[in-house]
Amino acid sequence: MALTISSSPSPSVSMGLIEQKKGVKHLVDNSKDMKMLPAEFILALPEAERPSLAIHGSIPVIDLSGLNGSIEQRLSTIHAISSACAEWGFFRVTNHGIKSCMMDEMVKVIEEFFRLPLEEKMRYGSEDVMDAVRYGTSLNTTRKHALHWRDFLRHYGGPVPHSYHLWPDNPSNYRDIAKEYLKEVWQLAVKIFGAISEGLGLDPNYIERSIGEGTQIIAANYFPPCPEPNKTLGLAAHSDHGGLTILMDNGIHGLQIKHNQTWFAVPHVPGTFVVNLGDYLEILSNGRYKSVEHRAVVNAEKTRISVAVGHGPEMDAIVQPADPLIKEMSESKYRPIVYKDYIRGQQSTIERRKSALHEIMTSSDNNIDD
Ligand SMILES: O=C(O)CCC(=O)C(=O)O
């Protein structure tokens, strides 16, 4: 079907639902002279929330080699992680043990996937947020709200990836590369979970035990160049539902995080990962640590690719604060909820931000997040 996008500078250009579902890469590839953003993508962003107004800042940097060093180095690294979790909810890790060539290979195969013909990617098209493998676009195309300038591929991973046989088989090396990458990233998450457990005064294996078999979800995001990047977003402000997300990108800037009510642009640093806390850790820590709102902005010149891997408990786990922390604070600040119900609720909200988390808070006083 022909696109209804016109190159005329009319603010009313708009797309049909079928065209929307084909995604933004398809849209850009088929509208060479697009000067204006189609109306569906224009987000009502308050002036202070405009992507270009973010402050350039730096998040804490943690050298993870300290966790394998002397007792003093280990304790000082745990202390640094604990402070970063309490103050920022975001930090960058260096000396994490994953080779740069493996990171590069993963980004490359993701890029090859998105460059496949649309019909090939559409084999994985799905709007059910719980499906094992999903290719899609925006945040939720079934809802009547402004679209986001992003296509994505998502699937489960895990130390023993049960859905491996469903992962994309084109590019032909995708499964092998993703399996190896996700295994290493899982081990990294477990290592950081251990340090966070200790920093919370819990047994070092506390979080690892709480997640059981665990859930690992990869979200590979593709953000093509956008004609009016200041009017839309690649991904709206949201917190992640899991415990820890481990993120890298292809070197093109785009991640912004909300800290002290201000948007900060997080620069790309080659060979490092950006790690952030999700809602599961806010709940488990009984609010001592906060999950942090973040978003992806787009740009007019270059395609950005980001690869976010989230780690949380197994789907049927009951998510609730750790017992020792409830005792310490004499209250539980969050109502228990089954993890998969939490995900379903969070993924179907229109106003993402931290609205799903606010729903399970026991006191409205807790709604101040950062
Ligand atoms: O692209 C980014 O930097 C952020 C990605 C992200 O937040 C997500 O996939 O949930």
TrEMBL record:
Has keyword NAD?
A: no
Q: Which UniProt keywords are present, listed alphabetically? A: Iron, Metal-binding, Oxidoreductase, Vitamin C
Ranges of residues in domain Fe2OG dioxygenase = 213-313
Enumerate the PROSITE patterns for this protein: FE2OG_OXY
Keyword presence, Lyase: no
Q: Would you identify the family this protein belongs to, as annotated?
A: Belongs to the iron/ascorbate-dependent oxidoreductase family.
Q: Know the name of this protein?
A: Fe2OG dioxygenase domain-containing protein
